[in-house]
Specification:
With about 200 residues, the protein is α+β, with helices and mostly antiparallel strands. About 35% of the residues lie in helices and about 25% in strands. A hairpin with a 5-residue loop joins strand 1 and strand 2.
């Protein structure tokens, strides 16, 4: 399979995203509306999750097991992550464009968020969990990380009830493109050698 990394990154940087349809054929898509996870004080999460965070049940890592996160995101009854798209994610990861933000518990992968990072934009592709609250903790800690790294945009693509619990907002495609253009002007770095290791709460702050 011949994967043109630069053209794929260009597509995402212009506001398009890849998805496999019902026929399992991969294609580019766009939307009249876009869902964002706010990186300002509009971000919120359930009070019950605060107790989990206080108990520090999970450790957090970046790219500790990227492939396992991809597989976890694809492991559902209906998925837009085809085998072809999986190969593209792995190639983007090898090239430094795709990352996984993970939660771990007792040496086991608890959950994670898969995304593509381009300058000041984190484009969330999917998330999953194997241990209860694993993906929710990943969401909170990812927002903290993006704030620290001064990201402009956390694109969640499509709204759903789960994202609404975190204060997700729906904006027009025109407003999204303006924010995306702003993000393309920002030089942000999602990870480095230090951040690829397990992160403690103190290190993240």
């Amino acid at each position: 399979m011949n994967i043109n990394i630069s053209s794929i990154v260009e597509g995402y940087s212009q506001g398009y995203f890849l998805m496999a349809g019902d026929d399992n054929e991969l294609d580019w898509y766009s939307s009249n509306q876009r869902t964002l996870i706010p990186l300002d004080d509009r971000f919120r999460y359930p009070k019950s999750l605060q107790r989990v965070l206080n108990q520090e049940r999970f450790s957090v890592a970046i790219d500790r097991d990227f492939k396992a996160v991809c597989e976890g995101c694809a492991d559902r009854d209906s998925t837009w992550i085809s085998d072809e798209l999986m190969e593209i994610y792995l190639a983007l990861h090898q090239a430094g464009w795709a990352h996984s933000f993970e939660t771990w518990q007792g040496g086991k992968l608890a959950g994670g968020i898969l995304g593509i990072t381009i300058r000041g934009a984190f484009i969330g592709e999917s998330m999953f969990y194997r241990i209860t609250e694993g993906s929710k903790v990943a969401m909170v800690k990812l927002v903290e990380h993006l704030r620290t790294r001064q990201y402009v945009l956390f694109d969640a693509q499509m709204q759903n009830p789960h994202l609404e619990r975190f204060g997700s907002v729906v904006i027009s495609s025109g407003k999204y493109k303006k924010m995306l253009n702003e993000a393309m002007m920002r030089d942000c770095f999602f990870s480095n050698e230090g951040f690829k290791k397990d992160l403690s709460t103190d290190e993240r702050r």
